Each structure stands twice: as structure tokens, then as C-alpha cells.
Amino acid sequence: MSAEETAGQLTPESTDAVQACVQGAINDKAPLEVVGGGGKRFYGRPVAASSTLSLAKLSGVIDYQPGELLVVVRPGTSLAELERTLAESKQALAFEPPHWGPQATIGGTVACNLSGPRRVRAGAARDHLLGFEAVTGRGQIVRGGGRVVKNVTGYDLSKLMCGSFGTLAVLTELVIKVLPAAETERTVVVTGLDDAEAIALLILASRSPHNVSGLAHLPRGVRVPQGLSAASGSGDSITLIRVEGPAPSVDHRAPEIAGLTKRQTVSLEAEASTSVWSALREVEPLAIDPGERLWRVSVPPTVSATCRAALSKAASSPEQPRAFFDWGGGLLWCVLPASVAASAVHRVAQDAGGHARLVRSAGAPQGVDGDDAVDQAFSPLDGANRAVHQRLKLAFDPSSVLNPGRMYAGL
Amino acid sequence: MPLSYRRSGSVQFRHPMHLPEPDQERLAKKDAAVKALLVVLPRECVLFSSEDLIAYECDGVSAYRQAPMAVVLPRSTDEVSAVMKILHGLQLPVVPWGAGTGLSGGALPLGDGVTVALSKMRQILEIDLDNGCAVVQPGVTNARITQAVQADGFYYAPDPSSQIACSIGGNVAENSGGVHCLKYGVTTNNLLGLEVVLADGEVLRVGGKSLDAPGYDLMGLLTGSEGLLGIITEVTVRLLRKPETARAVLAVFDTVEASGQAVADVIAAGMVPAGMEIMDKLAIEASEDYAKAGYPVGVEAILLIEHDGPEVEVNYLLERTETVLRAAEATEIRVSASEQERLRLWAGRKAAFPAMGRLSPDYYCMDGTIPRGALATVLGKIRELSGSYDLRVANVFHAGDGNLHPLLLYDGNVPGELEKAEQMGAEILKLCVDVGGVLTGEHGVGIEKRDLMTYQFNERDLDAMQHVKCSFDAESMLNPGKMFPVLRRCAELGAMHIHDGKLPFPELERF
Questions:
Q1: Which of A143, A300, A381 sits opposite B461 (nearest CB)?
Q2: Does position A282 have pLDDT exceeding 80, yes or no?
Q3: Is A160–B212 a contact, with Cβ atoms under 8 angstroms apart?
Q4: What kind of fold does domain B124-241 have according to CATH?
Q5: Hey, what CATH class is B17-117 in?
Q6: Which end of chain A is more exposed for a tag (fewer CB within 10 A), N or C?
């Protein structure tokens, strides 16, 4: 159900106003679809809500202290704007979150626990949320965490907020750790490796002492980001390894990385490198045609190549899935026809020791009856996990007014 | 749904260090408990005679002691689960115990409860360098993980100063830190998976070898939960490649404030050193007297900075750091030229805590975190408090991440001095909160800081934490009396019991 079809869109501009919205929803037994900028509605299950609670107007930087390496922001703050503000002080969000469109907000980014290629080195959004204020599904304003990096005072509720897709509480303020931006970067590019060879090289690089901060592999058949087409003129596969840091360090490490393979390598310098990784972060190499779905499969790096092969088998086509690897193989982005059952994708991912998430469907709007992928957007939880999840949901949102069903049915 | 919660309503503790009063009804169950435990565990894994229990009377906070009813030493997850089922059936509370080195009294036993010690579960189950991780049992010491992989050039990053003795299970329970947190994070940033046994004996596995997991971040929630949510039975830690090299620089300053400013300047210059430590005059004198690391005595403050990484990078960063330190008016700068020199520079810092024994019969180690910019204010006020309480204070500061360790020197044999030190300690922690910091940076709340929780959090914030507790342990069987200033019934909070993932009428769309 999209916002246009619903009666109301609530756009509170203060924490108290958010509380009033949630309280109203509790009183009226009218669930809310909670969104930041609404740019990631496609991610997860559809929410059966009476109205949309948009945090787009609860925005702005409250406090930015470069010396303390932290920024305090409201959830509706545009991710692009926040990144520009940080860049003015030569700082950045080290977890390199994807935007997936211009509406991306910091609140939505944290709620979905999004992180980009640098995840392998710098951690995910969950590693950078130091504290928060939120309105729980009980309509209570609570604070968790703090404004310092090192803090073990009580349960780490920030972790619970990160990646809970707004199903437990509505974030109204976030304290985020920031770090100095890398002085410069370079990417070593190798072409023509098959999946297994490429993953082996990425593992070798990740095991090296060269502090790599990006490890990706683009098999044949995906859209090659601009700036790389020269390297892959013949449509060969492309393997990329990034190093970042002070120039003398990058100058030293990049050749060491190139020395890990006997093949010829090409280097992408500063801006060319930045633009390629930004394309990977945004999953640009994968176009989703009608009747296809974009999946995100998180697995141990060593099994990612076999995992892709298993998905090919599930799709009964060697051409499928169109896919690429990030996080040194730990993250497999792939496009599969909608005819491949969600349960099959989850089985492959879980058999490999990981999990899968449906990120986006094309041509099949969410909410279509009988679409198993809509029911099972996220890999199913086992009994013990499900029980704890349900109890947490009941504890924080007993009336189930916040994004009900966004992650799992009944959650 | 009525819960079989044995205490009547909310219990407010009377004294800072008070645990719930031992319950006669529970004490009377000792024989039955021992008998049942001996069915699932061999004789040597169940301790119940008073002489066997002495070793478990206290953890690293030795001022508070209490013998548990019994101690069990399970050898596997199955045994932990079997033990928990028995104790849950008998409604006896459980206190998890790693290595007993904790600094907040988190493992202080309950007189009417059973301590579950994980020290027999100390196998390294798997080392998987290609996936950058190791799977270990909870009783493995922090240092042993690194020892097991260092020949291959790897290490486990969090390095609490007790790392030779402290267990990884305890590290997870306390979300332990160390001196390299600014660059490498604390325990929670270096884990991939956990297995825990819940209060009713159910086994919960979260995460694994991939970088994230489906659903809520239960691993993040369990890390630092101080044994109140589950018993950690297996840990998958992330391993990092050991940096090619590390070098340290020691800078001397005329005031502690100037050393604090230098830290800010280093960060402002865009550098994130592996470690930044400040010691004040008294800490320097004590450690020099004890460790003879060659620190300049009589100076007001020293700042120790370490960079690690590829040699080229470390050399480059050290040069820049020196420039910053000079501009910050350091009166002396020493840079390590060899690994021996680096270790020597660190030797004084590492000896700071044991060195206190030379200065005073007892010391009380505080653990607040403050915004780095508040250092001057906080140290000034600590000086005032030191005067008004007439207790000497030595300051050791993880300056990179704002984690302050004032060491309050007192004599426990002088009546009233311990209480005085506790009071002053509480004032310092409140001060940390006042300037925008927190009560504890890496030692945990435990029993020590439990009653100060209301100073940092309001009732709603604490209720939210209590909701988490109730979601894992509705009957408050795990480590009751720790972390929360008031024991509350889950029923009061409007929680609801779900067994084995099965809601009453699961077919209803009730959410």
C-alpha cells in the first residue's frame, strides 16, 4: 500500500509531535507506516498501515563536533546533506552507506542498518550509532546509549534500534560516530578471473596486512560502471581491491596488492576509484528487468562462489543470477527471475551459513497476493530466535502500531 | 498471565552493594538442587561444600563477598542447557562466571543462587583465517585467542589489561574494551556470532561467519548484557591481520589540560591513532617507581600515542604527530625507534594499576567516559574532590575514546575509608554524566554502579532496558540484583510470555 492511497501522511516536526502521532495510533488502533524520506519502501515486506508517519520534516544537524568525532542529527536529515556537512571538516560516515535514491535519510539508513563496501574494514551502521532518542510503540520517549564511543552503561539499545526497520520505536535523534575521511584512495583492477579465482584473490588481499577497504568482483554479464569500461573492454569479469589512507601509504600498498596476482593489473586513481566504489555501493551494476528481483545474500566469503552456483541451479539457468560480489565475497548481490521461489533463495543462503533479503522487485509491485517473496522477504528465523523477536516486539510495541510486518509477518 | 516471580512487587535495594536478601525458601532447595545437578554433571563439576565455594566468593571487586549456594562447572552447551533447565525448574537464580576478573561485581554470587562457571569450556573449536574468524568456547582467555593465531600473523583486537586471565565469554558479557578501541572498536565491534543458553535452558544461536544476520541485532544486544540475558556458550570472534609495525611516541606536558588539547589536535589533524593514553603526575610517579620505564618524574602529564599499520604509513603519521605535539607545546618528545623501545614506552602505562599498590594499601578504580573536550573540567573537579575527601587520586586516561580511570587511593583498614572512597567515586561518575559522558566505559554496571543508573537514565529509559530483560528472562532468574537499581516484575511492565516462539493463537494477525 503506498502513501498516495492512504488517507493521511503525518509529518511531525518535533519529538513531542512524534509521540502524539504514536499515541494517537495506539488509541485508534491504527498502525503507522514509519518512513524517513520514504526512499526505501521497496526494501522489506509491505506494511498494512492506516497512515504514514514521515520523519522528513524532523530533520537537521543538532550538534556536530568534529573534535569529538560525533554528530547529533535528527532522523529526517538527508544523507547527502549530512555527508556534505561532514566533508567540509574532512570527515565522513566510515560505514559508507548506500543512498538508493535522493530521498535517503540518516534515520532510514540506520533503521535498515545499511553499509557499503567499506563494511569489511570499518563496520556497519550498527557500529557507528552511539546513542539515540526514540518514541517506542508504547508512546514513550526513551534515550539509549550516549555521546561517547566507549560506553557499557546498561544494555546496548542502539544495536537493537539499528536494523529493526522502525518496528520497535521511531528514532527521533541519533548520535553518530564520524571519522576522518581517507586522504586518498586507489583501486587495483584485475580482469578475466572466474568467480572462484576472484574470491581466492579477494581472500588473499583481505588476509594481507595492507588494510584493504574494498573487495569486489563483477562477473561477466553485469553493467560495468563508468570508468571501468576501458579495463574490461572485452566484457571480461572485473575484480577490484581498494586501499585508502595517506598518499605515501597508498603508494606503498597498492603495488603490494597488485603483486598478489600474476595477472596484469590496472590502477584507478583518486576520483576514478571513488566513482567506481560509489557505483558498487548503489548496486548500479545490476539492472532489474520486469519480472525480476534483487536479492542481497550475506554469507561467509569462502562459500560465496559456490553459493552463486547454487542459485544458478535454483534458477535452472547458467545465465542467472546476474550477480556481483562485495565485502570480499561476504555479500552477494544478485538478480533472479521472480519464478525462483523465495524459499529456495533462503535455503541456499542458509545452507551456506548466511541469510538472504529481498531488496527490490521489478514489475511486481509489493503486496500482490500469492507472491511468496513478499511473505518471505527476509530469511526465516529459527524457533528460539523467533520467540525472542516476538517478545521484543510485544515489549516495545505491544499494540503493533509501528511498521507491523515490515520484516516478518507478526513482527 | 501470572508469572511465578518469587519476590513481592518491586524491590528497592537499601545499600549500594546490597543484593536481594537470601530467600529461605530457596536456601531450603539446596539439597534438591545438588542432587538434580549431580544427575547431569559428574561429581567434580558440582561444588557445594563451603571450602570449595571460597574461590567463588568474589570477582575482581574483592571488597564485596558472598558465597553462592553452589557452583557448577558444565563442560558443554548441552550441560549448560541441562543445568539451566534444572535451576529454572527449581526457580533458583543463576549468576554466570567467566574468569572472575570483572571490575564491577557483575559475577558477585547470590547466597540463594547458583554460580555457573564456564571455566571448563575452554576449547578453541575452529580457526578459519580465510573467513577471518575463530570459533571459541567462553572460557578461552582473551590472550589465548591471539596466541593461537599469531604465528599466522593474525590477532584478536580488543585487549583489556586483564587479557591474560579474563575469558572471552566474560569479555562478551561486559563488552570489554582495551587501549586500542578508537581505531579497532570494543568487543561488540569484533564479533560475528554467539551461542547463548537462555534462562529456561533453551539454546539461542545468533550470527555466524557472515557479516550480518537476519532479524534484530540480538548479538549486539547480548554483548554487554552482563549475564542478565543469557549464558554465553560459544563465541565467533573476528580476527584481524596484525599490523606490519607499530611505533609509539611519548610527549611530556606542563599541564594535564595541555595534554588533553594535544589529543584533540591530533584528531583534528585527521589522524586516528591505535592508542592515546594520558597519565597524570601521581600515576607517572607510581608507575616509574614500580616499572622503571624511564618516564620523566615530576612532570605534570605524559601523553603516549601509538600508530600501527604499514611501516611507510606509521612513519608518515609519526612525523605528522610530532609536528602536532610540538605545536601543542610538548616539553619533551620521545619516539620509539625499535620494538624494544616501543614496549618500554608502554611498560610504564601497563604498570600503572599494579603500581598503585606501592602508594596505598587499597585503590578503587573508576571507569567513566567523558567527551574528550571535557577533560580539563573533569580533572579540575576531581582535584577539588580529592581535596575535600582527603583522598589521593591518580589519573589514567584512555584519551582517544574519553575513557577516564581515576584511581582513588584509600586504606581499607581505616574505618570509613572504603565508604569515603565509594562516595567520592560516585561523585566522579555523576560528574562524568554531568559533562555529557557515561557511568562506565568498559567495566560494566554490575553491582557497583547499579544505584547510579537513575542518574544517567530516567525511569522510561530504564523501563526500555527492563523490557529487553523481560524478553529474555521474564522471571528474572539470571543475575538478579545487577545493573538495575530496582527489581521489577515483568508483569508490571505489561510483558507477555511466549514459549518456544509460539504465541497463543499464532494464526491471528495480532500485531
A1: A143
A2: yes
A3: no
A4: 3.30.465
A5: alpha beta
A6: N
